[in-house]
Amino acid sequence: MKMMMDYINTLVLIGALNWGLIGLFDFNLVSWVAGFLPGHFSSIGERIVYVVVGVAAFMLVMQNKMFKTFFKFMPKLK
What is the pLDDT of residues 7-38, one digit of tens each? Predict the structure, then answer.
């Protein structure tokens, strides 16, 4: 489970860096990387990255102790 949390933290960090780049320089790293995919796959690849980062962020929020004490019924992930 530690390995999974390392992946989750890395994905959330990538998402945060992307939003920082968008805010500071109006540069979307995900779109730039996905732009190297051929044709229609660039928009599909971009959406997949955003969904995976969003799921990772949700899982990270579920690990927050304050969130867990507020919602006691949430399942515990280790």
Answer: 999 999 999 999 999 999 999 988 888 777 77
User: pTM above the 0.85 mark?
Assistant: no
Dist. CA 5–CA 59, nearest whole Å: 9
Alpha-carbon distance of 7 to 56, in angstroms, equals 8
The candidate with the shortest Cα–Cα distance to 48, out of 61, 59, 37, is 37
Interatomic CA distance for residues 25 and 18, integer angstroms:
10
d(Cα 34, Cα 46) in Å, to the nearest integer?
6
Residues near 70 by Cβ (< 8 Å), separated by ≥ 6?
none
Of all helices (H) and strands (E), which one includes residue 72? none
